[in-house]
Structure formats: C-alpha cells, structure tokens
Amino acid sequence: MDNLQLFSKKIRYYTLKELYCMGFGHYGGSLSIVETLAVLYGDKMNVSAATKNDPNRDYFVLSKGHAGPSLYATLFLKGYFEEDWLYTLNKNGTNLPSHPDRNKIPGVDMTTGSLGQGISAATGIALGNRFAERDNYTYCIVGDGELNEGQCWEAIQMAAHHQLNKLIVFVDDNKMQLDGPTSDISRTFDFVEKFKAFGFESERVDGASIEEISAAVERAKKSTEKPVAIVLDTIKGQGIPFIEQMDNNHHLRPDEETKEAVRLAIEELEKEIEVAL
Description:
The chain is an alpha/beta fold and 277 residues long. 44% of the residues lie in helices and 12% in strands. It has a single domain (2-276), classed as Rossmann fold.
C-alpha cells in the first residue's frame, strides 16, 4: 500500500498547487476524495492514457464535478496531459475548466457539474456496457449534498432494477455542502441503509484509509446481482488540518494569511514526497 499512500500525497500536492495558482476554488470537496482517486487510478481501474478510448476500459464519472481539481491532478500523474495544464485551471483558454469536460480533457468520460446528473450518466454507461456484453466496470463518485437531488435516487433505483453489478458508486460523505452542514440542509439519515433499501449492496468505510477503500472495492467486485455503494466517511478538506477545521471550506477565496498557510502545506507535502522517494 506504500505506493498508493505516496500516490495520494502526490494527488493532494498537485491539487493544492493548481488551486493555489488559480487563487480560489473548491478546496474542501476536492481534498476529501483524494484517497479514493489514489486507489482507483493507482490500482483498481483498468485505465491508462494509452487506452483512454478503448471501449473495454473501465469508466469513471465524477458526479460531484466541482471536485475536478483532484481528478485533474490524478490524470496528470497518470500521463494524460502535461503538468502545465494544471496551472491554467479555470482560466481563459484552458483545457481544464472548473468542472470536468469530456470534450476538452483526455481521460474524462463524462462532462459533469450540474449536480445529480453524473450518477444518471454513470448508470447509463454501465447499462450500455451490459448491452454491449462488456465485462468492464463503471465507477462513480457522488457527494452527500448532491444526494439531496431526487434525480440521483431515480438513477439508483434504475441501476438496482437492472442489476448493474458492474456499477460501483462512492458517496463522499464529508458532511458539508455549499450552504453548511449537510444535516442542517437536508438530513441524509443512513446512506448505507438507504442504498440497501433501493436494492444496492452497501457498506461504510473510512474515506481516509487506502486499505479500507481498497478492500471495499475488492468486496464490491464480488457482487453478482446488485450494484454496490461504498459510503466514504470523509472530512471536507481532508488531509490538510487547517482546511478541515474551516466552516466555509467548500469554496475558498483565501485571504493573505490563508494563502500563506496553503503555501506552507504545499511545501510540507513536497518534503514528504521527497522523503518517500
């Protein structure tokens, strides 16, 4: 697992660098899915830059599209594009807009950003692969706040109805959304039990644990009749303590003090990566 731990540090490092360069952005929700991206792209998914158009590859949909910066960092590290792309994030003429765009970004399977729609697309991809008699998997990350949207549950019900056992959905349960704590906006109750009631297999894991996420994916792949939901117990801003402690970390426009703290966090991660190498 050491290689995946290092990979997650690199994803977090480059995510911070691109957001720092832009000057503002979706820090909280980008950081909370870093470990999951490390497990998927570092070990579990059958994908590569060389086979990005192979219909038999695994597919990935980031339904919570505002977490695009961490996906971009991951795709860069996997060789889909050059590092300099990262520092054009959301700037005029960029190939990396705020939310993923499949027409601009190699390795992005679905354009996302309008919350609730990505999981519907992932369900359609999984169903299409079933019709094409492919044996590949479709992975999707949704946000806990995003699951306020009724469209998500329509897709979840459809996936269960069609027994899409090659669909694995991750819920980034970081307990915060744009307007505050998710429990204050619309109580989620128990995601594991809700997904089970809709016909999924479901479990909760520590979303900061490479080991637990990896083991959960292996269990998910043993499902023969049901899609699977893995509920990630995460923290908004995960891995960067001072961001974790912020109440407004969904989208940050850092003041000078916070910018300096981000810069120092980047330096610390760089040192940790150098030691690990």
